[in-house]
Amino acid sequence: MDWSQILNQSASSIISTTTIAYALAAVGLGVHFGQAGLLNMGVAGFMAVGAYGYAISILSFGFPWWLAALTALFASVVFALILGIPTLRLRGDYLAIVTIAAAEVLRLLLLTVAFDDVTGSADGLFGFSGSFQDSNPFPDGEYGFGPWQFNETTLWPVVVGVFLLALSVLLVWALMRSPWGRVLRGIREDEDAVRALGKNVFAYKMQALVLGGVIIAAGGIVYTLGSNASPGVYVTSLTFFVYTIVLLGGAATIFGPVLGSVLFWVLQYFLSNLMPALVDAGVLPFMTANQAGMVRFILVGVGLMLLVVFMPQGIMGNKKEMTFVK
């Protein structure tokens, strides 16, 4: 086995648009789930709104990339309002059912041929990265060191993604240290007690849903920067991946989702390269390379189970904040 190649490919995932996009989605879900106690299972829907809002704004309306991104974020606000107004009075499992259903409805709308001219149906949307790359400030050349190597085309989305991630983390950190954040955590712990103090619990939940939804949609935009928007990406398993990341890093933390995203994707890349290599080396003769590659999902699932059992607060979490295991 070529351990050098396996480790280099695993390390390269630390700085990638995929890791950054999932980190943004996890930060947004941290606002929903970790801070406000909202069991939102529609993460894939918010990311799809961001990705398709961005792509459609460019292809159908001819917006520049930055205006398309703002339009997509505004669309996520509208989606959060449409989703939140009738559902935020629900609790626990009921809210989860409604949000996962809403994300599936949105995905099926993107797949239907009725809107093929706008959404591209099953083929998705592509060819919208020209405006974004035209604004690329980096001259032609190679950048980076070690396993982190980029050219001018691949570096620009990473820089934009890191900027959005840093801005989102800073914003959430500041808000959670404010009186607004303390009320939000109070709602997570006991919303009846907060309501008894005269606070409008519904309004706070709606604000949290909008804020987290905008950050998740930003993750969808970063995921599709310089690539295509495909409905096959925004499936239910994406939501489960983001929950895994949040639980891994710490649901009620600010920086935990970022750490969780890095660890999750490093582990995914490591196992996806290691398992087929073990088959080729004869260590797993009873498997094919494709079968061994899928085993990584089983291993990650087992790891998540053990994490919830033995470290439910996550790597960076506080043991006192474990409301999600109630």
Automatic annotation (TrEMBL):
Keywords: Cell membrane, Membrane, Transmembrane, Transmembrane helix
InterPro entries membership: ABC_transp_permease, LivM-like
Main location: membrane
Membrane topology of this protein: Multi-pass membrane protein
UniProt subcellular location: Cell membrane
Keyword Phosphoprotein carried by entry: no
Membrane-spanning ranges: 12-31, 38-59, 65-85, 94-115, 155-176, 208-226, 232-255, 262-287, 293-312
GO molecular function, one term: branched-chain amino acid transmembrane transporter activity
GO cellular component: plasma membrane
Protein name per its UniProtKB record: Unannotated protein
